[in-house]
Amino acid sequence: MCESIATRTFRLNENRQSEAFDPGGDSLETILEAAENCPVSAIFVEDAETGERLFP
Amino acid sequence: MTATHIQDDMFTPDVIADPYTYYGRIRDEDPVHWNEKYAMWAVTRYDDLTWLTRHHELFSSAVFKNDPRPPYPDINESDLGLYEYIKNYQADQFIQHDRPEHLEMRRVLHGFFTPRSMEAWRPFVRAAVKDLLDAAEEKGEMDVMRDLATPLPVLVIAEMMGVPPAERQYIRHLAEKLLYIGRGEYDRMKPLAEGMRGMVDYVSPLVDERIVNPGDDFISVLANGEKKGIFTRHEVLVNTSLLLLAGHETTINLICNGALSFLRHQDQWELLKQDPAGLAKPATEECLRYDSPVKSIQRIAAQDVEMRGKVLRKDDRIRWFISSANRDPVAFPDPEKFDITRHPNQHVAFGSGVHHCLGATLARVEGQEVFKALAERFPRLQAEAADLEYQPSITFRSLKSLPVTWH
């Protein structure tokens, strides 16, 4: 799911599981949308500089 | 593959009563099994199930649109016209779509169902469970199915739909007809079509109203999808009905099957009672794994594909079996053991991949609140009947009733 929304941040590995290959690949808005849409709630978003939890 | 013969009638009383022995045997002996009787593939192993769901381009979810054959099991020949109506209706469900449409449709709905938004419903669920258990306590007896598991999801869904309390009974009445979708009776098309027409008639004016006057209910969310041009009106109606049904029977089954698992495993019931609040979460996961609400899900091969040395041809019918995958010894140590402290517990009760259950968090909240409240309030809970019956369905694992006592 996330690799279809935040296409420059997530991709599928050889087992078809998502991985974040470029944490800053998309805008924060797009990354948050990907995180919210994750069917298994597997995405956590933090500010890399401050460590602040942005999602969930 | 061994020489032993696997009988292919999935509706025999012993298979309905105990799917685990039957599908477990297929998993062990012929994991990707061609079922002659229904002309479909049964996929039964955990690894195959997750592989299949992650390769959604090979296995279409648009089962109704892509399958020109008559339904299985057979129906009355005179009902084939009704089946056409039912097919067209079902085909508009967002879960019956592949990419790119599926992603677009699911994104309209997802905001409503995020874990955070669903957590906000916990106090409502807790209060509803309390009211239902108060009533049962006063009466001094309870059928978990009739008095708790059935009314709870209707209360929650009706509230989410923004339906007035007086009309909940009618919603339940329609849902009962819609449930024939997973059944095997020859004459199931008639009630099914009645349920569908009833939903369309009931929801249509609500959608008209929400388009003009949107609220925070999920009919408004769907109506907004129509405004944006993502859903047609028919799709709005069908998907409202889908959300009603999907959150309904499945939750009933989670509650009844979970309660029964505790009644049959006193040691785990004792354990839960020691710390109901702390164990409600892992206990609900184990209930979901051990006696899953949904037994199987359909797909249709989008192209020729090989699995475990078998060639599945384009347009072949496929069913993947949650009931056997969740007891696959490769994925779960001691899989036949009901263990509420099991960790990790990566069960596939909600499916996996891009079609993973949208309502999973809501189901979890409802299960957790029910098992916690039962353990706190009815420590001496016992099953009243020894032999329990299940609905003849290959899709749902549904008890017909579950009478209990606590004296």
Describe it.
The complex is a heterodimer of chains A (56) and B (407). Chain A is of the alpha+beta class and 56 residues long. The longest helix of chain A is centred in the middle third of the chain and has 10 residues. Chain A starts with a helix and ends with a strand. Chain B is α+β, with helices and mostly antiparallel strands. Chain B has one domain: Cytochrome P450 (Cytochrome p450, Orthogonal Bundle), CATH 1.10.630. Chain B has 19 helices and 10 strands. In chain B, the strands form 3 sheets. In chain B, strands 1-2-8-5-3 form a 5-stranded mixed beta sheet, with helices on both faces. Chain B has a 3-stranded antiparallel beta sheet with strand order 4-10-9. At the A-B interface, loops of A face α6 of B.
Q: If classified by CATH, what would the architecture of chain B be?
A: Orthogonal Bundle
CATH domain class of chain B: Mainly Alpha
Main sheet overview of chain A:
2 strands, antiparallel
The coarse silhouette of chain B is globular
Please, how many helices of chain A?
2
Query: In what range is the share of β-strand residues of chain B?
Result: 5-15%
What is the terminal-to-terminal distance of chain A? 17 Å
Task: Tell me, rounded to a whole number, the average pLDDT of chain B.
Answer: 93
Q: Kindly name the structural category of chain A.
A: alpha+beta
The fourth-level CATH homologous superfamily of chain B is Cytochrome P450
Number of strands of chain B: 10
Average pLDDT level of chain A: 87
Structural class of chain B comes to alpha+beta
Residues in helix, % of chain B = 40-55%
Backbone shape of chain A: globular
